[in-house]
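Problem statement: downstream parser choked on a complex file, so we are re-checking the raw output for the adenosine-5'-triphosphate run. The parser issue turned out to be on our end (a line-ending mismatch), but while we're here, posting the original submission so the record is complete.
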Amino acid sequence: MVGLSTHSGTSSPLLEARGISKVYVMGEVEVHALRTVDFTLFEQEAVVILGASGSGKSTLLNILGGLDRPSSGTLHFRTEELSGVTDADLTQYRREHVGFVFQMYNLIPSLTARENVALVCEISKDPMTAEHALDLVGLADRLDHFPAQLSGGEQQRVAIARAVAKRPELLLCDEPTGALDAETGKLVLEVLDHVNRETRTTTAIITHNAAIAGIGDRVIRMSSGEISDTSVNETRVGLDEVQW
Amino acid sequence: MRTLDRKMLRELWRQRTQMLSIALVVATAVTTLVAMRGTYEALERGRSAYYSDFRLAHIWASVSRAPESTREALLDIPGVAAVEPRVQGFASLDLPWSDAPGQGLFVSLPERRALVNDVYVREGSVPDPLARDEVLVGELFFEANDLALGDTLVAVLGGVRRQLTIVGTGIGPDHSYVVPPGTLYPDDERYGVFWLPHKEMAASFQQDGSFNEVALRLAPGASVVPIIDAVDDVLEPYGGTGAYGREDQLSFKVLQDELNQNRTMGIVFPAVFLGVAAFLLHMVLGRLISTQRSEIGALKAVGYTDSEIGRHFLGYSVVAVAVGTALGSVAGLASGGAMVDLYATYFRFPELEYRLSARLVFIGGSVTFVAALLGGSAAVRAATTLAPAEAMRPAPPDRFARGWIERLAIVSRLSNQARFVVRNLERKPLRAAASTLGIAASVAILVVGMFMFDGVERMMSVQFQWTQREDVTVSFIEERSSAVVTSLGALPGVRRAETVRLLPVRIRSGHREVETALTGLDPNGRLRRIVDGQGREHAVPPEGVLLSSILASRLRVGAGDAVFVEDLTGHRRTARLRVRGVVDDLMGSTAYADAETVRRVSRTDTRSTLALLETETTDNEALTREVLDMPSVASVSSPSRMVENFRQQLDDSLLVAVTFLVGFASVISVAVIYNGTRIALSERGRELASLRVLGFTRSEVATLLFGEQAILTLLAIPLGWLLGHGLAALVTTAMASETYRIPLVVSSRTYTVSAGTTLVASLASAWLVRRRLDRLDLITVLKTRE
Ligand SMILES: Nc1ncnc2c1ncn2[C@@H]1O[C@H](COP(=O)(O)OP(=O)(O)OP(=O)(O)O)[C@@H](O)[C@H]1O
Ligand SMILES: [Mg+2]
């Protein structure tokens, strides 16, 4: 088994964030979720983001994925400017380029696993079938289950199937293995690896599990809304070597 | 099918009770509009076709006896297009199938089709002009007595008993509403209109070569008032009692009043219902959609555009409104048909048919749809303007603070549970106000629907217990001297006899004039009194007149003003009388005066047109027969029978209306309360489930959920009473007609029933939600992250 990515960090930038900050104003209190972050995602690379709870990982990922807007700073997807565009442009960006695995799964409760995936396939240019995507995450026998009939981990896998089914250029995963045991966690990472290799998808994964850090091309550490450390993995660890 | 559509269908099905209740609100609004407005349109259509096809007169005039040649003189009046002289008279009837005697208004039929007031023949044919014993019977009488063509009846025509064979049934345009003289309500079993060939009528009523009634049609654009004066001039020498136009013709006037009322109701009620429905749709769909906030966020996050999401949620409104409009059209068609049938028992037209109006369905559907759209899109917009990251997160825990209500001393002493309820209410004051208003609307609708019973009840007691206190009313064809009264008083079983003189007059003030009867009352009489809508009695003024408020407002006069009163009988003198007061009475438009004042106006000796009898028993059939056989008695009626007939008419129509309103109001309160609780349940499901997990019992949790609705309902009831009272005042004003006015009386029964219905509806909704709450699967609720 190989590592998540085999690409070098020398390819061109896919997503470039400059001086990104995010401030939540709550009455008289200001929460600085992000403080002037500079960050670049390169084509086809896989990045692992680590950091304490509340350090701003989700906030950064949400901004990169066009789910939220920074309070200041600029963001470019390839040559396109993403900061300051309209909501409709952001929607278009998410629809065409981004696959997202949310920390809260955010499945539609009234749709089955298959339908939750199909929901995204229907608005994509070149999707896989919903069944295929669910097969990839090992849920071929749970196609017609509603979210309420699935375990937390299974729901998370449906969320992953939903994210990869559209064959996105950019795959952003917020703790995709957070609720999973070692075996399933590996299965999920294998799927992400498979997708990353097959479709050369640029991938960013948030995790609390430092052991996973070795499987990416680069590892980013966040604390108090800042990137405190970036390291490049010269030798990537194979999935089977990961200690859970 | 697109997945998004599947989601919608599935959720619609899951929330079918809620959706159905919303659809039912739409349905009530559409039903009311389609049925009530549709009924008005059907009546109006039937009436105008009838009046033009059968050439309703513009002017009528009665005379004692005018030679045929007078017709030419009338035709010569500029503006007169057609003149149709008739002979008409009353006759008592022997009805072989009934113990009670009947009465008929007999009208002559010309040998050709009548130029004015042509008769519509429904069944059979008109009598042969030369036949002696064939009669055309008014349709209402015919049907009320279950008659068949070929049946016979006996009429006392000009003192001669005659057996007549029914050869046909019909209606006259000036007799589409038929009431016995001196009364206001039909008595179709005992009183009807009959048509005989002109020759027969002339022979029976001693009018050979002459006529005693004439109807005129005017050229287009001719003005009525000067022609009435000209007709009076022509007919005066022959005992004309004053020509009158359509506004003073009973059948026309009653029908006109009824249609005006009908039009008002066809506007007021649908407007109220549409308004309430629009409000509810706005509120309920808005709340329903806002519970989907995080799903909207997820859809946005995966790349659905705002307009795709908007269209998806629009689907909910479309389905609810479409289902409601369809249900409403079907119910509207059925009830509109029933309402028209009901009208057809009192008003007859050749064609009276209810048709489902696509236009009305469209109006009802689109008003509710626009409301649904506005409510829904406000909620969708609220959710889509949030960044998806924000929207997907469960709504942030509300910021709680001790609000002003909670700081009230009494609340601070409440239990924790009660405080929880109060805090929730205080947190969303606008929503609480909207729900309260919604529930109040249903209370108000019930108050409006039921107060009519109260008003009519009051009207009847004013009229029949306080005003008309006699047991039997006798009306004479011509004025009689007081000797007749003395003889009536001497009849067996009669305890007391009094007289009333109704002098046909025209009252003028400036350029306004009204044709009415000057009612001459005996100041010492006990059987007729002047009573207003509040039940206050007014004394007969020793001089001058008292005017009904309707009359006073038509003439624009008040107490102290002078009016000119023209006697339309005999010498046609005009007297100047002072208005001594205005009586806010409920029925008719009358001018009251002392019998002596009437005598001075007409410059004749004391005469009477009505005799009022107080009898020893209530069973007066024998007396009625005896009196009817006396010469020049036009009719014998009894107030108690009038009450009966009135109740009949009322029970039929009001009961239908009230049943509808109770149903509709229940639908509305259930929709508001059920939806309110259901939405609260889905908004706070996690919170409540957590409490259950922590060990709270089902009923404790239920108290938290329902406490809020209970408080809102209790607040809504007095507010609804207030709103209802206001609406009732609006309706009484809008419906006031010259024939009667419903007083604004709201009984405690109405208040009780309206509050009770709303309480029952809220208990029913609570019960429905409670079942759901009990089945609340704790694990599922806590596990799914919506
Ligand atoms: N909507 C919001 N309003 C106010 N503060 C917020 C909001 N969302 C996040 N924050 C704050 O911003 C900071 C960063 O949050 P973020 O969700 O990015 O953390 P995280 O690194 O993803 O943490 P975790 O590992 O627990 O998911 C936190 O302190 C959080 O409280
Ligand atoms: Mg996070």
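For whoever reads this later: The two ends of chain B are 24 Å apart (CA to CA).
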